[in-house]
Design brief:
Elements lengths: L12 H6 L4 H18 L2 E8 L22 E8 L2 E8 L5 H12 L17 H5 L5
Parallel strand pairs: 1-2
Antiparallel strand pairs: 2-3
Length: 134
């Protein structure tokens, strides 16, 4: 089973990355993964799940999940207040894949509303995690 040949190398990978002292070091650790993902044009589809937000759910219009990833395309699906929210993230400017995805939703009889389009910006949370408490 060739695909499983290097599986052992992924064991505890995220824990090891978390131990790196800086965000820059973490980016460097993932550089080979980024190169492979871009070389092969891989993508990821993830269903985050139904959020259990209790009484606060009545105030929620949508719930997005956006993440920086090595994949060329990442689609994150989440649900809250009876609505599915889809975040379609890509590492290139053309809309050809997004348009194809939206066309497929239409062909399946699913209506959608595009509420926002923006460049992906992820807060460097790791920089704050180790900040000294005041």
């Amino acid at each position: 089973m060739e695909p499983l040949r290097h599986f052992w190398q992924t064991q505890d990978r995220m824990e090891r990355v978390e131990q790196l002292p800086t965000l820059q070091a973490r980016y460097q650790a993932f550089a080979p993964t980024n190169q492979l993902s871009q070389q092969y044009g891989s993508c990821m589809f993830s269903y985050v799940g139904k959020a259990g937000l209790g009484a606060a759910e009545q105030y929620i219009r949508e719930m997005r999940t956006e993440t920086d990833s090595a994949y060329m395309i990442v689609v994150e699906v989440s649900a809250a207040a009876g609505v599915f929210s889809i975040s379609f993230m890509q590492r290139f400017a053309t809309d050809v894949y997004l348009d194809t995805f939206l066309d497929e939703l239409h062909q399946q009889g699913l209506t959608y509303e595009i509420t926002d389009r923006h460049p992906l910006q992820i807060a460097p949370i790791a920089d704050y995690r180790n900040a000294k408490q005041k």
